[in-house]
Write a structure and sequence with these properties.
184 residues; alpha/beta; Rossmann fold; seven-stranded mixed sheet; globular
Length: 184
């Protein structure tokens, strides 16, 4: 199947069914950051129906790359698996069904240069903390929906302050934005 057609179908289906896919504006921003940073090994926490993973392929196809995506919801995982297969990306995207809080520590040989955190908002701090040790020397971590769901991200600001972690909050969408943490 043509991936561009699939992406349009997933976008429309997501809007009609309240699937929490990232916006087109956020997708463009993320793809630009992925391109500029030369991302090769990416971790996504929260894959919904696979929309973002399929979109990431578009920018990363010219590089050797791999995406590991972790999803806790069985219906979302099943939908993502089906859509990633339809896109012909099953060999490039590793899908894991389980709680990311249990999965991330077990990724012993993992070394990511880009982490996209878009899972359960109240666990954002925990996802960030666990992902930290799984990153290469130089990396980018982006947390989605940090303006709209700031109150749900329990302990995140304190964790960043206590660990002297520099970050930028970028208001990408009209009603929301992302947090970007870069280590060089």
């Amino acid at each position: 199947m043509n991936r561009n057609i699939l992406i349009r179908e997933l976008r429309e289906h997501g809007i009609l069914n309240d699937i929490p896919n990232i916006s087109d504006v956020n997708m463009k921003f993320l793809c630009d950051v992925i391109r500029i940073s030369g991302t090769r090994d990416m971790l996504e926490i929260g894959s919904a129906n696979g929309f973002s993973g399929i979109c990431f392929w578009d920018v990363l196809e010219s590089q050797w790359w791999h995406l590991t995506t972790v999803e806790f919801s069985q219906p979302a995982y099943d939908a993502a698996r089906e859509n990633i297969e339809r896109a012909g990306l099953s060999d490039t995207i590793t899908q894991i069904f389980w709680n990311a809080l249990d999965v991330i520590p077990g990724l012993d040989d993992a070394s990511f240069d880009f982490v996209f955190i878009d899972g359960m908002k109240r666990r954002s701090k925990d996802f960030l903390e666990l992902s930290w040790s799984k990153c290469k020397k130089w990396w980018v971590i982006i947390l989605d929906d940090v303006i709209k769901f700031r109150d749900k991200m329990v302990g995140l600001e304190e964790y960043l302050t206590d660990n002297n972690i520099s970050y930028n909050i970028l208001p990408i969408d009209g009603d929301d934005g992302v947090m970007m943490i870069v280590k060089r």
